[in-house]
Amino acid sequence: MVNPAVLFDIDGTLVDTNYLHVHAWHRAFVEVGVQVESWRIHHRIGMDGGSLLEELLPDASEDEKSRAKDLHTQYYQESSGLIRPLASGRKLLDAVAELGLQVVLATSAPENELAILRDVLDEEDVVSAVTSSEDVETAKPRPDIVAVALERAGVPAERAVFVGDTVWDVRAAARAGVECIALRSGGIGERELSAEGAVTVFDDPDDLRKGLRDSPIGKLAALAN
């Protein structure tokens, strides 16, 4: 039987990028001539890009939304030199692999952004499967990306745990029937993450690594071959 899998979001979960995304979106909106406060952007980081634009620019034309999306990509890539793994992000992946569990990068990042993130993580030797925005029409909070990750890992929902940092991660995992561990490293508070259905909340990858065996991941390891 295939070993159980831990599905990891990347942005804000393993690498410190959420606020870079906020800044890139803010610059993009200024460039297209609309004002959107940064806190409103931040709360939607991790949401599908099209859905984010629908919520934040409901009255904008499709051309304006498309331009904003392209500018966000441009500005984010310009800041890519600032991207760093979060505390123990790499060590967490190693620890999960050492438990005999599959490590799956279940992200909805576009391929060009994903390439940057994978390069920063530099953990290809422990990763068994990867998803990207090209795998689904609409990403989080829809469960589609989680379903694709489960399929690629070859496991049912009950033999997986999702690790994310936003309410969109928690919702997507719940809709796919997968327990979700949430991290505060994306800038969302414990109370909000728990209210959405996170089974437990840790500060960051380092905090989760230290409590790994007592977490739902530790319980999942007991099912490994």
UniProtKB/TrEMBL annotation:
The record's section on InterPro entries has:
HAD-like_hydrolase_sf, HAD-like_sf, HAD-SF_hydro_IA, HAD_2, HAD_sf, PGP-like_dom2
Q: Which GO terms describe its biological process?
A: DNA repair
Which Gene3D superfamilies does the record associate with it? HAD superfamily/HAD-like, Putative phosphatase, domain 2
Q: Which PANTHER family match?
A: BLL8046 PROTEIN (PTHR43434:SF16), PHOSPHOGLYCOLATE PHOSPHATASE (PTHR43434)
A Pfam family per the record: HAD_2
Q: Can you name a GO cellular component term?
A: cytosol
Q: Which GO terms describe its molecular function?
A: phosphoglycolate phosphatase activity
Q: What is this protein called?
A: Haloacid dehalogenase
